[in-house]
Design goal:
The protein has a two-stranded antiparallel sheet with strand order 1-2. The protein is built from 5 helices and 2 strands, in the order H-H-E-E-H-H-H. Helix content is 74%, strand content 5%.
Length: 198
């Protein structure tokens, strides 16, 4: 009996972290269930922030057509001047539109995840997991593109690069938390189904 337990323990030790179910045992400071709630609230807030930033970026890019100069005052003075290529400007506008659309989808699936967590319906975690992976991947390529084509001399672009880099790390962590919670609940459901069959 003890040899069986020790061999099972050795197998678990040898198993790599990415083969474990669940991937994470906890969410650093809390359990997976509460960590998933925090993830849904985080992505809800992040999606609202992304919508605001996308609308602001669209406004700035539309105001700053090549060759024009506009002045605005929003508590601080803004000088809208765009001196770049019009095709790059159009790609930046496209990036903002796609970010806005994806953030609306992320907002909806964050609300779905909150409801699924309350009822512990792990199958409803899938839309959030899919949306979070797509949204995080898109944000990575979008911020990479914006950092290359925008002048990082300006504090706004530097701040966006730093903030989005930090948020992308948080996104990856929260995806792992929700995925681990999904795996844990799926394993429990499978065990319950097997017990019903016996």
């Amino acid at each position: 009996m003890s040899t069986t337990l020790s061999s099972t323990h050795d197998l678990l030790k040898k198993r790599r972290w990415y083969h474990r179910r669940p991937l994470l045992r906890n969410a650093l400071f809390t359990d997976l269930q509460n960590g998933s709630y925090i993830a849904s609230i985080y992505t809800l807030v992040q999606s609202i922030l992304t919508q605001i930033l996308a609308v602001f970026d669209l406004y700035v890019l539309i105001e700053a057509t090549p060759g024009s100069t506009h002045y605005r005052y929003f508590g601080i003075n803004f000088l809208f001047v765009y001196s770049g290529n019009k095709h790059i400007r159009n790609l930046l506008i496209l990036c903002s539109v796609i970010s806005f659309v994806l953030s609306i989808y992320m907002l909806v699936v964050s609300i779905i995840l909150m409801r699924a967590l309350r009822k512990e319906v792990e199958q409803k975690f899938r839309p959030w997991l899919t949306a979070a992976v797509v949204f995080t991947s898109w944000c990575f390529f979008s911020i990479l593109f914006k950092s290359v084509v925008n002048d990082l001399y300006y504090a706004y672009h530097q701040a966006m690069l730093i903030i989005w880099t930090l948020m992308l790390f948080c996104n990856v962590f929260f995806i792992l938390v929700v995925l681990s919670n999904f795996q844990e609940l799926a394993d429990i459901t499978r065990l319950e189904d097997m017990a019903k069959l016996k």
